[in-house]
Write a structure and sequence with these properties.
mainly alpha, 71 residues, single chain
Amino acid sequence: MPRTTDASSMFEFDEDTVSDRDSDLAAHEAALRIDDRFVGDWVRYGLTSMDAYLAKHARFAAFLEQRNQAA
């Protein structure tokens, strides 16, 4: 015969479980603060690299344009 459960027992909370969830949440929030700083640094690095890359290609395009005008 299938086992039945009392509906009230489904919503009981163990104090240790709630405490563990709170500590997990605090650890997750601390990780998010670190990740925000990391993402900011990563974006700055990416934009600086992109700027250097585009500047290099702009110089090369200018070189080709100047070479084509001379020919």
